[in-house]
Amino acid sequence: MFHAVLKGIGSYLPEKILTNDDLSKMVETNDAWITERTGIKQRYIAAEGEKTSDLAYQSAVLALENAGMKAQDIDLIVLATTSPDESFPATAVKVQAMLGNTTGFAFDVQAVCSGFLYALSVANSMIRDGSVKTALVIGAETISRLVDWTDRGTCVLFGDGAGAIVLARSEEEKADGVLDVLLYSDGRHYDSLKTSGGISSTQTTGFIQMQGQEVYKQAVHCLSNAGKVILEKNGLTSENVDYFVPHQANVRIIDSVMKKLGIPENKTILTLDKVGNTSASSIPIALDDGFKSGKIKKGDLLLLVAMGGGFTWGSCLLRY
């Protein structure tokens, strides 16, 4: 059995910053209200004409540079997004063309905020079974275009961005890299977090709608349970975790999950205050921040958890 090891990482954020004070001029809210309830101080918003593929491409270029690899070295591109450029074809193939990759294959994965873990699981499985040698896994969103800017309960949460990692095959018996990935979903909660439209229903994209209390309750339960299960499955405890990298949705959710898992704040990577909830790009952006800040070092064990609409959720153990 092969192993998928982490070779490179990169992230990209648009130029425009939208602060809480800026939002207070658009909707009835203020910095104190947003900060207390979410932990978010600002978010990045894609410029007019700037597409999800543009953000994904920039993060992919940086990840490839960090890995010391070229686009032609990649066998597989999996892009997680809820905000594709067009309904079809997949945004991943546009990124493939932008990179100049003609030797691999590419497709999108849609699991909302859990999308990156779902995409990572696909790439990991294909590397482990020998189908591919290298994979570029991207989470990219212009999720702000699904936001109703008159709804203060949701418009304060979301921002745009992209993050990418490069995985490569290792034949070492005890290789570092992706140690395990667990995925879950429960469609009974379909209406708790969704958009108000879609191609088949309203022929529009619609806007994000959220049942806040239900999302909070389920997120804390699902994320903490996913973390506990994957640690127990691999004979580990929270004390073995060097850094916890959760989906950056809401500081109250993250705090509650940290307490349930027994992980202190100084071992948690937080970018929520700077970038908001960037959906499928949340975890790779946080990972890149951890590497750039010097917190995450070679040999560190990382616990990743995410949850999104559907509900979908999952966990991953990754050793750098």
Structural account:
The chain is of the alpha/beta class and 320 residues long. It has ten helices and 13 strands. The protein has helices spanning 20-24, 31-38, 52-67, 91-99, 115-128, 152-155, 212-233, 251-261, 272-275, 282-292, and strands at residues 3-12, 16-19, 42-45, 76-80, 105-109, 134-141, 161-170, 177-185, 193-195, 208-210, 243-246, 301-308, 312-319. The strands form four sheets. A five-stranded mixed sheet has the order 1-7-6-4-5, with helices on both faces. The protein has a four-stranded mixed sheet with strand order 8-13-12-11, sandwiched between helices. Strands 2-3 form a two-stranded antiparallel sheet. Helix 3 packs across helix 4 and helix 7 (212-233) packs parallel to helix 8 (251-261). The two termini are 19 Å apart.
What attributes characterize this protein structure?
320 residues; alpha/beta; five-stranded mixed beta sheet; four-stranded mixed beta sheet
